[in-house]
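so im writing up the methods section and need the Lipoprotein release ABC-type transport system, permease component record in one place, dumping it here so i stop losing it
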Amino acid sequence: MGTMTHLVWRQLIKEKARTFTTILAMAVAATLTVATLIGINSARHSMYQDNIQNTGGLQFVLSKVNQETALAIQKKADISESVRYQRQGQISFADQVPNQPDSPLLMLPKPALQRLIQPILLEGRLPQNEQEVMLAQDLISDVYAVGKTVAAQRNGQRVVLKIVGSYRGYAGLMASDGAVTTGHFDGTKNYAVAAAFGNYGNFYAKLKKLTAQYHVGSDQQRVNELALKRAGESRDVKVRAMFVLLVIVVLSVIGLVSLALIYTSINLSVQAQTQRYGLLRSIGATPRQIRQSVCLQALTLALPAILLGLLAGIGGLSLAFHELNRIFKASGNTFQLLLTISWWPILVSGFFMLLVTLLAARRPAKRAAQVSPIAAVRAQSASRKVSQRMLRQGMLGRFLPTPIAKLAYKHYRRLGWSKVTMMTTLALSLMIFIGFTSFFRGMLTFSDETISRQADVTITKTQSLASANFSFNPRRLPGVKRGTVTGTTQVGLKNAPQAFHDRLNVIVVSDQTFGTVFKDRPTIITGSRLVTNSKTGKRQQQWDTPKDFAGTLELANEQSSQKTLTQPMKVVTKTAAEMTDWLVSDQSGLVLSASRFRQISQ
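--- predicted struct ---
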């Protein structure tokens, strides 16, 4: 241990309170850095995992390769997961769609079916033998529906296959116009490999190297681009540049706060040790050695601060993710935040904190090196340069009521860069605090009542509700898994309860839906949204109608030409998130059966 290192260590042990305070300030800065970088990385990985499920965890498909190439690709060291399948024929749908190209008949072994088809299963089930087939959703029609048969050419022979299901052709890695069956491999041609690299970092460079090695063209490749974009792996340079820019901007803001916090702490420590630095100069220490002493002291304190920041940042993120995942699960949302701890956020955080610490220590170290032995003996610090502007009273000083206030303001004007540091620290700390708390408060108040189950497709038709066919079942249409026919109108309310308007939306459903889903009870479906209070600036949940209302409403029949009639009706209220068995529309309102609605509108 060198002389300067020994002196630094003794000084840190001697001033335990100041040492602890400095470490705490550095730990706060390290926590912000660690939490931000690991949080961004975890969010990217969580979105990637959510999207990669549509392709069974596999990232790409290489098709039209021979058996030898397929086996070689599967054995590559950087391939972590893979399945193999084969094109064994085709199916013609020209009788239904003129000039329609033949659809490929793909044979997937059962492991491949589970990985590639099960996540995008739309209707029916997976094929269990060679006589069964699944079609892409665009191929399903009245003629080729689930339960019917289709003729196909398989290995040069005509076969008749039973349609047992359909899959979403545009959601995974399979052909959007394909037909899928199961069975055994036959021959050495027309193979395809669906695979994933051990990690998605630098994905496209690895894929380019792999395809170049086995001479696979671009028309033979299919990639889950959505999942890779979520992970930050995009072919578009602009997308990747935007992500890097985001990280730089966030780190810049955190860096300014960290710089101010650490600088203030080190500067106070240097000012308290003015006599010590002067005495070191008197026994032969050079200004360079003094500067090195201050920087070494700062770096020594930064190491435990970084460790504390890692623990606090990871622990805080873990608690936040756990709470958010609980809310997502309660609301029926399948998305989950996964805490991902990898090497690059930790290394970047450590390097970033060391760099900020050195920058923060630079000016205090220079000031410590300027302390003269005479000033140290007198217990004086280096004289501060005071400009004429600092000596002026200032506009604010003229309006201060007491001499003590004027004296304090005069001292404040003479602080120079110290006051700038203090104001910057307070302003940036307040900005980060408001930003983080607003984000998490918004996420935590986004409760399960704000999430409703929306339909993928909504078709609107303008016609009289009296002539609407509410008994029509949309599931009869090809490719439709669930569906509901509803009609909407408005009715007046007589003696409307508090928090209700004088008019109310009415959602009309079939008698069967009203009985099975709503138990033959008139039900108000209410939704909510997050709005910002103009007075307080806080976000709050605003309901379309009171979510706890249960009582009697009087509906006004405004269609009567003679007089306005009233129909008392006992109702209950449910939130949109509670109605998991029904596709909720965007509107809130009173749900009635078609027959009940006809009664009140006659």
